[in-house]
TrEMBL record:
<dbReference type="InterPro" id="IPR009057">
    <property type="entry name" value="Homeodomain-like_sf"/>
</dbReference>
<protein>
    <submittedName>
        <fullName>PAS domain S-box-containing protein</fullName>
    </submittedName>
</protein>
<keyword id="KW-0238">DNA-binding</keyword>
<dbReference type="InterPro" id="IPR003593">
    <property type="entry name" value="AAA+_ATPase"/>
</dbReference>
<keyword id="KW-0175">Coiled coil</keyword>
<dbReference type="InterPro" id="IPR058031">
    <property type="entry name" value="AAA_lid_NorR"/>
</dbReference>
<keyword id="KW-0067">ATP-binding</keyword>
<dbReference type="InterPro" id="IPR025944">
    <property type="entry name" value="Sigma_54_int_dom_CS"/>
</dbReference>
<dbReference type="Pfam" id="PF02954">
    <property type="entry name" value="HTH_8"/>
</dbReference>
<feature type="domain" description="Sigma-54 factor interaction">
    <location>
        <begin position="147"/>
        <end position="377"/>
    </location>
</feature>
<keyword id="KW-0805">Transcription regulation</keyword>
<dbReference type="InterPro" id="IPR035965">
    <property type="entry name" value="PAS-like_dom_sf"/>
</dbReference>
<dbReference type="Pfam" id="PF00989">
    <property type="entry name" value="PAS"/>
</dbReference>
<feature type="coiled-coil region">
    <location>
        <begin position="114"/>
        <end position="141"/>
    </location>
</feature>
<dbReference type="Pfam" id="PF25601">
    <property type="entry name" value="AAA_lid_14"/>
</dbReference>
<dbReference type="Pfam" id="PF00158">
    <property type="entry name" value="Sigma54_activat"/>
</dbReference>
<dbReference type="InterPro" id="IPR002078">
    <property type="entry name" value="Sigma_54_int"/>
</dbReference>
């Protein structure tokens, strides 16, 4: 084989990578600059190779020089080589055959877009919280009034939530996606002794892993290159005296679970780069659609943190277990969107309501709300809703013909339909479990539901 071939293969590989790769010698002269680096920094190879890298960047902003000085590699470190650039950088020293330091190589993954989206989301969330607080100041309302439904399933949960709201107990809200877990968290806060303090929501599934610590605990001035010169408080500090809502808590990385547990136990945090502890007095409400007990058994969630969060738990029922609430929910949403879009409120007959009760609504209340909006937007004034209802409903609901006559959308009509659907669902689950030899992961995938949802249904139908 031609000795030149391995070198060309390596050069081709480095050029094809999405990560920016740069190599400098001990004098700071650039000896390699791949295509991704050209695109990210808008500096061509012909411009920079053979030149001092400090011509293009401030020395203090370069990880290469820090690694050359310490001869200690860094891996996946959050870094800002420029004020408008955010990267995860891995930098390692390079030695010759005699173990003499001859340079350093940096591999940088651009996460600027992710950072900016997260900042925008955080800013929007803050503005929404301010607006909500202003509305609450002008008119007092029962904090749980936004949770609609009169079924036994939902009213029992509301009663429990109201009891625990008056305490400082940590609450774990469990339920499928779209059941209204954050709505319960907000209501508990607004009905608590901390209602006049901040309600800070953290979506654990939306924050890049490298930013978790700075988002939760904040950082001191100069904690890292490009950091705000005044430092930045984390979400736990912002929630001091108020409530911290950890949404999708099952997505927390294991290393952050340890740090969060310590902060909750000690009731104090350390900012990144800080030496002085900061006391925090917060109430924790966490929510997840995942089976945390199963995650604990699988080593994906710390047992001690689970029991720390599991002081009191609320199980929010899926919509398929509170079918009698569909009529009230749907009318609420139709009125809301008719007012929003200044359109006529579509009227639904018993035949159409029967379709709604037959459908399982896997997306829960969120799916029903979206359906209501779609119905209002597409409905034309004076049009007979029965002529177009089938087009608006999910395909699965088409099993019941719109020509069927149902006396009224009252419990006797849809209770039997719900029972029939549950029997069918139970048999389907049993068939899939037999097909997959009781492999829960494969069964959940074939059924098109989350594994946590499957475990809930197994328990419900006595199949666990």
């Amino acid at each position: 084989m031609n000795n030149y071939f391995p070198i060309r293969a390596l050069e081709t590989l480095l050029a094809a990578l999405d990560e920016a790769i740069s190599i400098i010698d001990t004098d700071g002269i650039v000896v390699y600059w791949n295509r991704a680096a050209e695109n990210i920094y808008n500096i061509s190879q012909s411009e920079i190779i053979g030149k001092d890298i400090q011509t293009f960047f401030q020395r203090a902003d370069l990880m290469n020089f820090k690694v050359l000085a310490s001869e200690e590699p860094v891996y996946d470190l959050y870094h800002q080589p420029r004020h408008d650039m955010h990267v995860l950088v891995t930098t390692v020293p390079i030695y010759d055959e005699e173990k003499k330091l001859i340079g350093s190589m940096s591999v940088e993954k651009n996460i600027t877009t992710t950072i900016k989206l997260n900042e925008k989301l955080s800013s929007t969330s803050t503005e929404l919280q301010k607006l909500k607080k202003k509305i609450q100041e002008t008119q007092y309302q029962d904090p749980f009034h936004r949770i609609k439904g009169s079924s036994i399933a939902i009213t029992n949960v509301i009663k429990l939530a109201k009891k625990v709201a008056k305490t400082d107990a940590t609450v774990l809200v469990l339920g499928e996606s779209g059941t209204g877990k954050e709505l319960f968290a907000q209501a508990i806060h607004e009905d608590s002794l901390r209602k006049n303090e901040a309600f800070i929501a953290v979506n654990c599934g939306a924050i890049p892993q490298a930013l978790f610590e700075s988002e939760l605990f904040g950082y001191e001035p100069g904690a890292y290159t490009g950091a705000d010169k005044n430092g930045k408080p984390g979400k736990m500090e912002l929630a001091h005296k108020g409530t911290l809502f950890l949404d999708e808590v099952g997505e927390l990385p294991l290393d952050m679970q340890v740090k969060l547990l310590r902060a909750l136990q000690e009731k104090e945090i350390y900012r990144i780069g800080g030496q002085k502890p900061r006391k925090v007095d917060i109430r924790i409400i966490a929510a997840t659609n995942r089976n945390l007990e199963m995650m604990v058994r699988e080593g994906l969630f710390r047992e001690d943190l689970f029991y720390r969060l599991h002081v009191f738990h609320l199980d929010i029922p899926p919509l398929c277990e509170r079918m009698e609430d569909i009529f009230e929910l749907l009318n609420t949403f139709l009125n809301e969107y008719a007012s929003k879009y200044k359109k006529e409120i579509p009227s639904l007959k018993a035949e159409q309501m029967a379709m709604f009760y037959a459908y399982s609504w896997p997306g829960n209340i969120r799916e029903l709300r979206n359906f209501a909006e779609r119905l209002v937007v597409l409905h034309e004034e004076g049009e007979r809703i029965e002529e177009t209802a089938m087009a608006f409903l999910p395909k699965e609901a088409g099993a019941i013909s719109s020509s069927q006559t149902v006396a009224s959308p009252l419990p006797p009509v849809y209770t039997s339909l719900a029972e029939e659907r549950q029997l069918t669902e139970k048999e389907k689950i049993k068939q899939i479990l037999e097909k997959t030899y009781n492999n829960k992961t494969l069964a959940a995938k074939e059924l098109g539901i989350a594994r946590s949802t499957l475990y809930q249904k197994l328990k419900k139908y006595g199949l666990a």
